[in-house]
Amino acid sequence: MNFHQTIIEQLLIYKKTNPSFNFLTRQRSGKAKRFESGHWFQGNDDYAFVGLINATGGIYKTRSVGLVFKPKEYGFNCSLQVAFEGEKREELIGCYKKLISQIGGFDKKDSELFDKDLGKISHNFKYFKFIHV
User: In degrees rounded to 5, what are phi and psi of residue 50?
Assistant: First the structure.
């Protein structure tokens, strides 16, 4: 079992008590047969990108807004990412900018890539409280 499996299990548990919480899994397995290897989300053995809205992140080949999990000894580092490079629709770009502004605390990684550190999470997601941001 890889860490993608842990993440999907914990998100499904969270969703049972928070039914309005939605997330997106990987849509295609691809040549690497990602589903067969348990990679339920975009990413690989180094990270998992859990999409929160169904809009493309442009050149980043992820959803435009999502949670990024990186495995560590204690569990995971987690961040909220907003990516919209190549997006042409001004109203959508405006929504992303407003989201970034209202939540605050984002680091600008590229012209249209923003990342907000959400901290450390244990393997059992015991400290999975940031969803209410």
Answer: -100, 105
pTM: 0.82
HSE toward the beta carbon, residue 130, CA cutoff 13 A: 18
Q: Would you state the structure tokens that stand for residue 110, as one six-digit string?
A: 């590229």
| Strand ranges in the chain using DSSP code E only, listed in sequence order | 42-43, 48-51, 65-72, 75-83, 107-110, 113-122
Over range 91-114, report the average pLDDT: 92
Give the type of residue at 124: N
Longest dimension (CA), the chain: 42
Residue 101 identity (one-letter amino acid): S
Tokens of 82: 């907003």
30's CB contacts (< 8 A; 6+ apart) are: none
Can you tell me which residue has the tokens 């999975």?
Answer: 128
Residue 76 half-sphere exposure, CB side, CA atoms within 13 Å?
Answer: 26
pLDDT tens-digit readout, 51-87: 998 766 555 566 789 999 999 887 889 999 998 888 8
